[in-house]
Amino acid sequence: MIFNKDTASKTAELLLQINAIKLNSENPFTWASGWKSPIYCDNRVILSFPAIRNYIRDEFSKNIEKQFGKPDVIAGVATGAIGIGILVAQELGVPFVYVRPEAKKHGRLNQVEGFLQKGQNVIVVEDLISTGNSSLLAVEALRNEGANVKGMAAVFSYGFQVANDNFANAKVDLYTLSNYESLLELAVAKEYITKNEQYLLQEWRKSPSEWNIEV
């Protein structure tokens, strides 16, 4: 769920302004999974815009502390959330670690990079939630290191039902700065998209693996 509606709307507008989120129902994007999609989200772009990355940092910091209490550690999911996670940890004045997709094959064989003590309260920062699988692998790695994962905070979520189910099954509370519903509402209000395009985007999310432009 979103932290709050005002932040969700403002975040969506900023992401559209800097083309971190692109909407194109006529010429769909192709995801790595092979899915055809009328939306593409690349929140790494945020780091290139100081005013916007500061806004994201500030909103994350105050809402994480309000929702979860001040954590002992912020953990960023590699690679997309490392930069944002560092900014949040710096603002909160707490240590930072990051989590690799899998353990290294050499050296200390770490999956969690940084100093983490058993029993510490950790908030995981993520840039984007689709199915949630890779994000929850990071949670599992942290739990295996003895961390108490209090929850996850992400910039944006597509809101797929499979992600909702995955987070519920893993017993992880997920909060986001913005989400798909907020994006579509803002995009129509600001005339980024038409009502017909809004319908197509809504239909896509119902079954993204089977969606096609003829819907």
UniProtKB/TrEMBL annotation:
The annotated pathway is: Pyrimidine metabolism; UMP biosynthesis via de novo pathway; UMP from orotate: step 1/2
**Top EC group:** transferase
Q: Name one GO molecular function term.
A: orotate phosphoribosyltransferase activity
Phosphoribosyltransferase domain location is: 56-156
The catalytic activity, as recorded, is: orotidine 5'-phosphate + diphosphate = orotate + 5-phospho-alpha-D-ribose 1-diphosphate
Superkingdom in the source lineage: Bacteria
Which GO biological-process labels does this protein carry? 'de novo' UMP biosynthetic process; pyrimidine nucleobase biosynthetic process
Tell me, what does this protein do in biology? Catalyzes the transfer of a ribosyl phosphate group from 5-phosphoribose 1-diphosphate to orotate, leading to the formation of orotidine monophosphate (OMP).
Subunit relationships: Homodimer.
Name of the featured protein: Orotate phosphoribosyltransferase
Q: Please report the organism this UniProt entry assigns to the protein.
A: Flavobacterium swingsii
